[in-house]
Write a structure and sequence with these properties.
The protein has 264 residues and is mostly helical. Helix 2 packs across helix 3, helix 3 packs parallel to helix 6 and helix 9 crosses helix 10.
Length: 264
């Protein structure tokens, strides 16, 4: 059973990879172009127009807002792609799952594998740039750790929202709005020191620190920007959120997936 499931995950991953850039002249290059353009736009707005000052890097020579931004975006992009993709991947096999039985979660896992590989390319570009600036050390091994953690965390949420989206198509639009708001609740386009302790009577800094994605983004930045080994507490927090999200999400998905397969 496990071997069959793994084969299905692989097949769905290959299927998603081929479909992603079907009839595209640039193919996988879009995996690099899109994040680089995003970084350029945000860098222009926040780094040039608003003149946001990035923290000092480990070697004191690579501090540019674009790099600070990239270290957070590489994690955020993977998270959003997995969450929104989960709804699309499940919807894409709606006819198939009504005809034959197969572990439905394998289609989402396969899509996540394909998306993860795309994010690895983005991460390699980030690492290559850091090497060019001479801001690199053995701590870079924690970058793939951050990617795995955010993918697992996103999968847990993806399992849940994909079920809701199969029944209520408004879910996809609602998730898009929530993600847009969440993006500005994580220190990606701003530094944590800009967040006040309190605002409107709310402990906003503490709320930001408790955000699971904040911990994972921090692991990424420690690995390739500050060249520090992430603290054990930070890694444990991120791993705990990832494991909890994935476990609960998969449990919910398995309980509800058969019901949506029977719906017209």
């Amino acid at each position: 059973m496990i071997r069959t499931s793994l084969m299905l995950v692989r097949n769905f991953a290959e299927r998603e990879t081929k479909a992603r850039y079907k009839r595209s002249a640039l193919g996988w290059l879009w995996s690099l172009i899109k994040p680089l353009v995003t970084v350029a736009v945000y860098s222009l707005v926040f780094g040039v127009i608003y003149r946001a000052a990035p923290p000092v890097t480990a070697n004191g020579r690579a501090e540019t807002f674009a790099l600070y931004l990239f270290t957070g975006l590489v994690v955020w992009n993977l998270f959003t792609e997995v969450v929104t993709g989960s709804m699309q991947w499940l919807q894409g096999v709606s006819d198939l799952r009504k005809k034959i039985y197969f572990p439905t979660e394998t289609v989402i896992l396969g899509g996540a594998v394909s998306t993860f590989l795309q994010s690895v390319l983005e991460a390699m570009v980030l690492v290559a740039i850091m090497i060019g600036f001479g801001n690199i050390s053995a701590t870079v091994v924690f970058l793939p750790v951050a990617l795995v953690l955010v993918a697992v965390f996103g999968l847990g949420i993806g399992f849940v929202v994909s079920i809701f989206n199969a029944r209520y198509r408004d879910t996809e639009h609602l998730v898009g709005i929530v993600l847009s708001v969440t993006f500005f609740l994580i220190p990606i386009v701003f530094t944590p020191d800009l967040v006040p302790e309190e605002a409107y009577g709310l402990p906003v800094r503490r709320m930001m620190e408790l955000n699971p994605l904040n911990a994972i983004v921090a692991v990424s930045r420690d690995a390739v920007y500050f060249l520090e080994v992430p603290s054990l507490s930070r890694l444990a927090t991120a791993a705990g959120w990832a494991a909890g999200s994935f476990g609960l999400g998969l449990l919910y998905f398995r309980r509800r997936s058969m019901q949506i397969s029977e719906e017209p």
